[in-house]
Amino acid sequence: MVQEISNVLYAKFGNRVNRRSGEDISSQVKRMKLAVEPQTINVALVWDTKGYDANIVYVINPDGGDQNPIKKRSLFYVAATRAKQFLAVYSSIPEQNAPIMQDALRAVQNLERQLI
After folding, report:
1. pLDDT tens string 19-70
2. How far is CA 4 from CA 10, 38, 41, 105, in A?
3. Would you say 53 and 82 are in contact if contact means Cβ atoms under 8 Å apart?
4. Which of 2, 6, 36, 78 fits a 20 to 30 Å CA distance from 89?
């Protein structure tokens, strides 16, 4: 899935996407140590981003995969907390069937109440 996303982004943005042909994404992320360069898009797996952050983060299909629900929530938390300014979450599962999306929506609503 990550390789497919990388291919789509590379087709659209060309050399502004950090990837190497024939090298898997997690190896590349470790190699480049998530170097942040202006005008560059880094594509990575969640567990490879722990300890790093970015101004803009897109999380794709957080309810996908076959991990247990606790591990999914943990990985989603890691992914979501990488964002410094903007977080977008995309899921192919309808919201009512996606427990992680429901949890995230409740957390945002609670945060909004606290800020008001």
Report:
1. 444 445 555 555 444 455 666 777 777 777 777 888 888 888 877 776 787 8
2. 10, 23, 15, 27
3. yes
4. 36
Q: In angstroms, rounded to a whole number, what is the distance separating the alpha carbons of residues 75 and 71?
A: 6
Element spanning 24, H or E: none
DSSP string, 101-115: HHHHHHHHHHHHHHH
Dist CA 42 CA 18 (whole Å): 5
Dihedral, CA of residue 74, residue 77, residue 78 and residue 81, to nearest 10? -170
Q: What is the pTM of this model?
A: 0.56
